[in-house]
Write a structure and sequence with these properties.
Two copies of one chain form a homodimer. By secondary structure, chain A is an alpha/beta fold. The first copy, chain A, has three domains: about 55 residues, lambda repressor-like DNA-binding domains (434 Repressor (Amino-terminal Domain), Orthogonal Bundle); about 130 residues, 3-Layer(aba) Sandwich (Rossmann fold), CATH 3.40.50; about 130 residues, 3-Layer(aba) Sandwich (Rossmann fold), CATH 3.40.50. Helices cover about 45% and strands about 15% of the residues of chain A. Chain A is elongated. Chains A and B meet through α4, α5, β2, α6 and α11 of A and α4, α5, β2, α6 and α11 of B. Chain A binds a DNA duplex through α2 and α4.
Chain lengths: ~325, ~325
DNA sequence: GCAATCAATGTAAGTGCTTACAATTATTCT
DNA sequence: AGAATAATTGTAAGCACTTACATTGATTGC
């Protein structure tokens, strides 16, 4: 069953069938209707390979993420796929893990699959050393590269980022305004968004005239139990803190567990602000005040931008979206 | 840059180049090395479209799930993609939502994309009414259909399921053995695995000679807060229960929150068993005893089975994997 | 009424690969 | 050495589509 069968049955040439297939306007309404009817009758589906060969596109976008089971990324994937599909594109998923080498390998793989663009979901793709990003720049020479919550400068590279810095600044400022003096900042990684968040924290302290003490900035892996233990050990080493801002809800959830088992009341004795407004913020008890990083808006904007790129429009290479501070039970502002 | 460029530069025919590309053994080591060297030198990548046209396969598998941001499915997607990729296959993701019509539409779409198989992740794809599954059976006439944690009988349809019934049976029996008399079962949906879980619960009660009271079997949507409220309202209507078995961790997490705020001690006064061993079981305080439904094993088996189907092996149409009962703080057995 | 224009359709040459079959070269056997 | 056989390699015909260009037929202007 191919285009010849249709053309024969409809008494037209294959070119006409192809035109109908591609919505070419140079077909009379009568023949178009006839061809469509035959296609329907025969249950004809065009062969995507032959089509791809001719058009050199498969209407498929590669989505790369480090780990689709991460709460944040799982959401991003959902929204990206949804919005791509509503624009008539498929999504090939590629979970790369965290090794630079693997990322590069999968990048090549997606390129060789002739995807029409690659979306990098999450801030884990832009490396510190510029030369480690050359593989992205190289790919951008062929197809558009879209960063969701990451930023890289370059031709044919487009970023949509959340204003993490402003969000953390706001959260920290509010905590300071409501009387907190010893803010502890815990973070998981130093990616693009990670360093922005930290900068927001530092700026808030500076603007409020509070000292910036290195022991109040701590790293911890993204793990509730590990975070809980970290807080206990900080307590043990005598560090006093009346508020915690975490770069991820899992760390904030650890803080809640720490306070609950240590008999510290939330938010009276300890205020906690999480990040990402994930399911963990609702599972924690009390529920976490958390910064919503607007995944859906980020993804929708990314896809819209990409469609703009495809249609040759003049498109901003960077879009910033404001985060939302979701007030729940772990703060009293 | 195509196969002709390579053949010219290597002084061989395109057929030989193609043979090298496809690992055909009928090429002398010398020419193989020469061709590979030229490919490397030219940075040649075969065109997947042309390849697909000839081979009629793209080495791509469609993964369908209702919602990739669901904790369980996010994990499944991760493992499926990983294992497919390690077998040289790409994964096209398709989040269908819960409408039957949408599922059918996306099914057709994936088929028309000429994927080599479709994996249905999660038990939401097999409908109650057999005629609503005909679209799956139709697709199975063309390509293998793999069900992860769902079961449907049919030619070219393969299922990998978790023994949910045995798992719930075991959990309920242990609770009964350790002195519980009033077990409450809460569930979210009546899918294939949903009804198996419930059956396990019923069997455990029956085998222990406990009465099966309908008010002890309740439905609730997959939402921590909704679950918490459900327990409060049950309490209010006077229902007494000393143990809760939930078909999902989110419901169990709701039970924990209920008990914490109602001042009911866990597990002394109330034991709780969750399902899926998700991040919620670690976020809850106390941590949830939960049934691990072995997503990774399920996914790996599914992919292995699929590879078996591709290689024409004789493959079981149904594989069952045992669940694990992970003991944590919400039970004392 | 006839040339000029335009719309609709058809022809045929790609697109880059696979593979059956033919041709060539190398190896073995007598 | 020469025939028979085996191992390589090449030729050419698909695969199912797109599209530039050619052709046909209809419409318009004068």
């Amino acid at each position: 069953m191919n285009i010849y069968d249709v053309s024969k049955k409809a008494n037209v040439s294959i070119a006409t069938v192809s035109r109908v297939l591609n919505g070419n306007p140079n077909v009379s309404d009568k023949t178009r209707a006839k061809v469509l009817a035959v296609m329907e009758q025969l249950g004809y589906t065009p062969n995507v390979f032959a089509r791809g060969l001719g058009l050199n596109t498969m209407r498929t976008i590669g989505i790369m993420c480090s780990d689709s089971s991460d709460l944040y990324l799982a959401n991003a994937i959902y929204y990206l796929e949804r919005d791509l599909r509503s624009n008539g594109y498929d999504a090939i998923l590629c979970c790369t893990g965290y090794e630079l080498e693997t990322k590069q390998k999968y990048f090549d793989l997606l390129c060789s699959k002739r995807v029409d663009a690659i979306i990098l979901a999450g801030s884990k793709f832009v490396e510190m050393k510029p030369r480690d990003n050359t593989y992205i720049l190289d790919a951008a020479a062929k197809i558009p590269i879209m960063l969701v919550n990451g930023y890289l400068e370059g031709e044919n590279i487009y970023s949509t980022v959340c204003d993490d810095q402003a969000a953390v600044y706001q959260a920290a400022s509010r905590l300071i305004q409501s009387g907190h003096k010893k803010l502890l900042y815990v973070y998981t990684s130093t990616s693009y968004s990670g360093s922005n968040k930290l900068q927001g924290f530092k700026n808030a302290l500076a603007d409020a005239g509070l000292p910036l003490l290195p022991e109040y900035i701590r790293q911890c892996r993204k793990d509730i139990t590990a975070a809980k233990e970290l807080f206990f050990s900080l307590k043990k080493e005598g560090l006093e803190f009346d508020a915690v801002i975490a770069s991820d809800d899992s760390l904030a959830a650890g803080a809640v567990k720490y306070a609950n088992t240590a008999g510290i009341s939330i938010p009276e004795e300890l205020s906690i602000v999480g990040y990402n407004n994930s399911i963990l913020s609702l599972c924690s008890d009390p529920e976490l005040t958390s910064i919503d990083s607007k995944v859906e808006a980020l993804c929708t904007t990314t896809v819209n931008t990409l469609m703009g790129v495809f249609s040759g429009g003049n498109v901003p290479s960077r879009t910033t979206i404001a985060a939302d501070l979701i007030k729940r039970e772990t703060t009293n502002f």
